[in-house]
Amino acid sequence: MHSTFCTARAALLNPTFSKLCTLTFTLFTLYFLVGCQDRQAVKRDQYLAEGFGHYQTYCANCHGKDGQGLVGLYPRIDANYLKDKNKLAVWIKFGQNQPVTVEGKTYTRPMPGNAALKELEIAELITYVTNTWGNETTLWPTDSVAAALEAHRRLQQ
Amino acid sequence: MNIKLWPKYVALVLCLAACGGNDNERLPIWGEREPITKIVNGKETTDTLYHTIPAFKFVNQYGDTVTQETVKGKIYVADFFFTTCPTICPVMKRQMLKVYQKFKGDPDIVFLSHSIDPAHDTPAVLKKYADELGVTGNQWQFLTGNRTQIYDISKSYLVAQTPAEDSTAEGGFVHDGTFILIDKQGRVRATNQPYTVIDKEGIKQQLLRYDGTTDEGVNKLMEDIEKLRKEYY
Which residue in the set A56, A61, A72 is minimally distant from B90, CB to CB? Predict the structure, then answer.
């Protein structure tokens, strides 16, 4: 539509203007696309930064500043447990009391939940841990946290 | 959970340092003291009676009785914790583990971790905790017993925050993150060189006691254990 607009107008004037118009449009489109990607990357970086802070505040006491765990008491943050992000959201919010096995070693201490955490904070936290110790490279959005928690609530009823 | 500064104790130590004219290399002795006047060989001499840890009787992770006799003639590090604590205790145990590993097998150095939730932390629960922390033998003992006696003895260790039940605190108890250094005479010692820790809010604190939640506090403690044992060479 835009090019139709350009061509129609430009034809009335001269061919140089037409070329200029097309170039401007192309540049604008490119700028917009790149800008969009930048914004996504910036948002992910924000999630990572916030998530790092939440991790240090709420998780590092037991799981360690570098996710290394504490001997046989608390497991390290393990990539296998970062695959199911829905479950992760539920564990973070409500805690969990199932044995966790990492490299053949089983850990049985219950993990306390943190019911006060908001969906955004959980999204940031999951983005941080999965990008740091899992294989994830993108952010996990707040909507997904909300959906996971809602599904869990429905199951509980 | 609060790790407070101890202005009261800081003032006390400054006063002691001013009055005592101590050797700078020696770690100050904390707590109240009284002069004792005695007649020796017809001459009147003044001695100082220092604050010491009183007699106690607790049970360790093996169900054995532990008393002041257990630590007699030893340098020891004491702290207060509980096994289900989700906040500072795991951090303290991570740090204490470094001190333990440094002095592991050393017959002069002992560790006493007192549970402030003795109703839950039975010897069996403490044994499992010690096992999972990789602690074996008798060098590091995890103590349980009469709750009032444990809370009372914490005051003798001169901690800023006496343990207390508090339903608003995560885990249900508040307590102090200090590691307390006790010399062979049962006296509380602490550093003579204040060190700086920076908390999560970026606030700088100058400390004299050993903050069991920070690398700085624990590094200072390890240095000072070495310094203290030189007094007994």
Answer: A61
H helix or E strand, kind and range, residue A140: none
What is the phi/psi pair of residue A156, to 5°? Answer: -70, -25
ipTM of the complex: 0.79
Question: Is residue B143 classed exposed, middle or buried when 0-12, 13-18 and 19+ CB atoms within 10 A define those classes?
Answer: buried
Listed as ranges, residues in chain B with pLDDT below 70 are 1-24
**Topology, domain B7-230:** Glutaredoxin (3.40.30)
Query: What residues of chain B have any CB closer than 8 angstroms to a CB in chain A?
Result: 86-88, 90-91, 93-94, 97, 129, 131-134, 170, 200
Say how many domains are in chain A. 1
8-state DSSP, A74:
B
**Distance, CA of A100 to CA of A91 (rounded, Å):** 12
CB A18 within 8 Å of CB A11: yes
Nearest CB to A61 within list B86, B129, B131: B86
Question: Within its chain, how far is the Cα of A79 from the centroid?
Answer: 15
State how far the alpha carbon of B195 is from the alpha carbons of B53, B209, B213, in Å. Answer: 25, 9, 14
Q: What is the CATH number of the domain that holds A147?
A: 1.10.760.10
**pLDDT for position A18:** 67
Work out whether strand A100-102 and strand B65-67 pair parallel, antiparallel, or are unpaired: unpaired
Is residue A38 a part of any domain in this protein? no
The DSSP symbol for B38 reads E
Task: Indicate whether A19 belongs to any domain.
Answer: no
Q: Does a structural domain hold residue A71?
A: yes
The pLDDT score that the predictor gives to residue A87 is 96
Q: Which residues of chain A have pLDDT under 70?
A: 1-15, 17-18, 21, 36
**What's the DSSP call for residue B133?**
H
Residues 6+ apart with CB under 8 A from B39: B45
Would the pTM of this model clear 0.90, i.e. be above it?
Answer: no
